[in-house]
Amino acid sequence: MYRGLYSAALGMNSQWTNLEVVANNMANISSPGYKKDETIFSSLPELSISRLYDNIIKSPAGYKDTTPFVGGLGTGVRIDDIVTIHSDGPIQPTENPFDLAIQGDGFFCVSTPAGERYTRDGRFTRDSEGYLTTISGNRVLSEINLPIEIPEGDFVVDEKGMVFVNREEIERLKVVSFDEKEDLIKIGAGLFKKRDIVNPKVAESALIKQGYLELSNVNAIFEMVKMIEVQRLYEANQKVVLAYDDVMRRGIDDVGRIA
To answer: What's the gap between Cα 8 and its chain centre?
Structure first.
C-alpha cells in the first residue's frame, strides 16, 4: 500500500482537529475570561531512504553491506497536545459593581456540584438568597472556603479582593494561582479544574478591578488568518489523497488488461 496515502490522511485528521480548535476560539471571542487554545503538532519517526540497485558499500567484517544513504523521509504529523494560552485579555469597563476583573496571575474560586472550580469570568451577581454567584449560579467562595453572603446596600470590592457592604467588611474573595498552568484542565463554561495532585496558592500579586470585565484573549484577525491557513493545509492533504486514489484506480482498472 502507498505509504504517502496514510501520511496525507493523517495530515487531514490533524488539520481537522486544528480547525475545530480555531473555530472554538472564534466562537468565544466575546466570552469574558476565555483563554484560547492552540494545537501542538509532533512529527512521526522518519524512515531512512537508500538508493537501490546502486553500488554496494562494503562494510567491515561481521556487518551487513549497505547501499548509499539518500536521507530521511517524513511519515507525517500527529496532534501532540492542545494547550491553553493563559495570557491576560484586555480589561473593559462595565459600570456594573458586580463585574470583577483580575489583573495579573489569579483565578476566582467558585463552588460547583462537582467541587471547587476556577474561573477568570467575573460576571457575578447576587442570587435570590443573597449570595454572590456567577451567571451560571455557582457561588463565589471566600478565603475561608465559604459562599459570600451579600446584604442589601453599597457593594464595594477593593484591589485586594476585600468585600465591603455599606463600608462594613464582609469577606475576602478567594483568588488563587498555580505554579504551572498546565495543571489546569478546561471543562467548559469558563471553568477550570485542577489535577488531583496539585494545590493552588494564594495569588498575592493579583489585583481586583470592580466594574470591569476581562475580555477573551483571542485575537480575531490572527484566528481568521490561521483558519484560512488550516483550511488550505487540509485541502492540500486532501488533494494528495485524491491523487493516490486515482493512481490506485488506474492500477486496478489497467493492470492485467489485455490489449
So the answer is: 25
